[in-house]
Specification:
Shape: globular
CATH architecture of the largest domain: Alpha-Beta Barrel
Radius of gyration: 19 Å
Structural class: alpha/beta
Number of helices: 8
Strand order of the largest sheet: 1-2-3-4-7-8
Strand content: 5-15%
Largest sheet: 6 strands, parallel
Number of domains: 2
Distance between the termini: 20 Å
Number of strands: 8
CATH topology of the largest domain: TIM Barrel
Length: 268
């Protein structure tokens, strides 16, 4: 349900299937060295964001990566990653509709910093910011920070506490002290607080049972591949049955995109 503080965030619109772009601040998992492959420059990323925004996509999401995955040296384009928070601030200024997500690897960034950055981008975007939280998984990145890579559930224990502190920083009316298993804060506060209340959207792409436990403590928008597969399959059957030739906003005629575009045109 949309609250007054979330009225400007399209993630709360009536479309049951949300569309978005992912990882245009880098190359994602596509590590081809083909000469015509996507290059994660600011110009290319900005162009993609403006196209998606004008087409009515609900989300523009930047991933966080401190170190490339390919073992091809520092010059490999897979290691070129525009900072997700700085990226989100710039994209927020250049767009008017889509929600803009930054990603944070919780163990590498203190929640005080993320609270301040997130609230600032929420103000820049007029209440369209979202945060994708990650517990971390890439061992070379942790080694680069001099941090141990905890086992899976322990990483989510840390993330749970980290998110709790973040939410409190976004809403506290007075300074507060916090002493948990992992984090200790004294006289903590962060101003300004986000425009969106009770807070900006928090997303996590995990599907494990530990993620479900995290969701039980904090309402989190979770990307569920199984649920998405069912929705896309349903849209595909509808598209095939209608014999539609509608061209989607992304320029293709793929069943899922075209079916969604047809439905949106009918609702508009």
């Amino acid at each position: 349900m949309t609250t007054p503080g979330q009225a400007g965030n399209p993630l709360f619109n009536k479309n049951r299937l949300k569309l978005g772009t992912f990882a245009t601040n880098t190359v994602g998992s596509i590590h081809t060295i083909a000469p015509d492959a996507y290059r994660p420059t600011w110009e290319n990323s900005l162009r993609a964001a403006k196209l998606a925004d004008s087409a009515g996509f609900e989300a523009l999401l930047a991933l966080a990566r401190w170190k490339g995955l390919a073992k091809a040296g520092i010059q490999h384009r897979g290691g070129v990653v525009l900072d997700p928070f700085v990226w989100a601030a710039g994209i927020a200024m250049a767009t008017t509709y889509s929600a803009v997500f930054a990603t944070s690897h919780a163990p590498t960034v203190h929640p005080l910093i993320v609270a301040k950055q997130s609230a600032t981008i929420d103000h820049i975007s007029g209440g369209r910011f979202g945060l994708n939280v990650v517990g971390g998984w890439n061992r070379p990145e942790f080694e680069m920070f001099g941090l141990p890579l905890a086992e899976h559930d322990a990483r989510y224990d840390y993330l749970d506490e980290w998110v709790s502190v973040l939410e409190r920083l976004w809403s506290a009316k007075e300074e507060f002290d916090f002493e948990g298993k992992f984090l200790k804060l004294k006289g903590a506060m962060s101003m300004p607080q986000p425009l969106q209340q009770p807070r900006p959207v928090i997303m996590n792409a995990g599907v494990s049972s530990r993620v479900n436990a995290l969701r039980a403590n904090t309402p989190i928008f979770v990307l569920s591949p199984r649920a998405l597969e069912k929705r896309v399959s349903k849209a595909t059957r509808r598209w095939r049955g209608s014999n539609s030739t509608a061209k989607s906003a992304c320029g293709c005629r793929c069943p899922s995109c075209s079916a969604t575009l047809v439905r949106r045109r009918k609702n508009s």
